[in-house]
Amino acid sequence: MREKFLSELDSAQSFPSPHSKHSAATAQATRRYWFILNPAANRGKAKEKVKPLQQTLKAKQVNTTIQLTTQPNEATDFARAVKSSVDIVVACGGDGTFNETAQPLIHSETVLGCIPIGSGNDFYSNLSGNTTSRKIALETAIEKVLNTATCMIDTGTVHFEQNGSSVKRAFLNSLGIGFTGEIARIAKQVPHVRGDLIYLYALWVVGRTYRAAPMTIEMHTPSGVQTITESVFALMIGNGKREGGKFWITPEAEMNDGWLDICILKEFPIWKLPRWVFAFMRGSHIHTSQVIYTKISRAIIHLSRPESMHLDGEVYEQVSQSVQVSVVPQSLRVVAVS
């Protein structure tokens, strides 16, 4: 493991791990923190937040370490290494950084805190309830991490085949197969475009060539098991309401209701794509006959061809055979930022 410690502000003191909510008045005094920052987030702009973060934590006399990642999946390794010796691991980045950091914290007593400095901060927006904007001042985000109570949320887990290997991952906010998976793939390849323009550009590129594919989906819903076979343009599963900044893929999702929401957009004439884009931006798509929308505890998606899939914005190409998704209720303790 390659570790880089930006600053060790003070030696950590020994405090009990959090088992329940803390009051704002005592939270900062009784918690041990470890910050993991991805300087490559937001197309590399996150590195500009390193010094302000360091200065703010020093000013607040927070006993902590700031650790920088240098390659993919290091946040997972770092969080796993320190989770037994700190109370809160604070992920500084975007949705991918939050996802990586959370992997070893699920089903543990260690809390996930988030500082949103990535290009996509959908998980943070959904968690906070402020889904009108993904932007928040750095100092405000730090204040929330230091002084706010904790709460439990659900997570999702997914098993799939990729290039002949079996993969198991957790996700916090959303999963997309088909059209949205391709959009996430293209967005990762566009270094010269930032913010929401990334997704709009990728949407334009993918929309010219992508076509629906047959899928068979077995869904465990509140009313029982349902199996459907459809030609699917896009399949989305949300723990949060929104992804891609402006798209309300699963507008009825709640992060602590013990369910995931699935949204299946059936095949349609491609000239109608702009209409569907605007429908997803309003969240009105779930009221149409072209969309299957329900809550699920589990789903098995049988693919007819290899597809791109994203988990919290991280892309997995050549996903094949079947994808199994399940909700894991009340499995992650997070800093409540609402």
Report on this structure:
With 338 residues, the chain is an alpha+beta fold. The protein is 25% helix and 36% strand. It has helices at residues 24-30, 50-59, 74-82, 95-102, 122-128, 138-147, 179-188, 196-207, 273-282; strands spanning 4-8, 33-37, 65-68, 88-93, 111-116, 150-162, 165-171, 174-178, 213-221, 224-238, 260-266, 291-296, 298-303, 307-311, 314-335. The chain has a six-stranded antiparallel beta barrel. It is globular and about 60 Å long. Residues 1-27 have low confidence and may be disordered.
- Count of DSSP H/I helices: 9
In total, how many beta strands?
15
The rounded distance between the terminal residues' Cα atoms is 35 Å
Question: Into which percent range does the helicity of residues fall?
Answer: 10-25%
Query: Quaternary arrangement of the chains shown?
Result: single chain
Instruction: Please state roughly what percent of the residues sit in beta strands, choosing from under 5%, 5-15%, 15-25%, 25-35%, 35-45% or over 45%.
Output: 35-45%
What is the structure about, briefly put?
By secondary structure, the protein is an alpha+beta fold. It has helices spanning 24-30, 50-59, 74-82, 95-102, 122-128, 138-147, 179-188, 196-207, 273-282, and strands at 4-8, 33-37, 65-68, 88-93, 111-116, 150-162, 165-171, 174-178, 213-221, 224-238, 260-266, 291-296, 298-303, 307-311, 314-335. Helix content is 25%, strand content 36%.
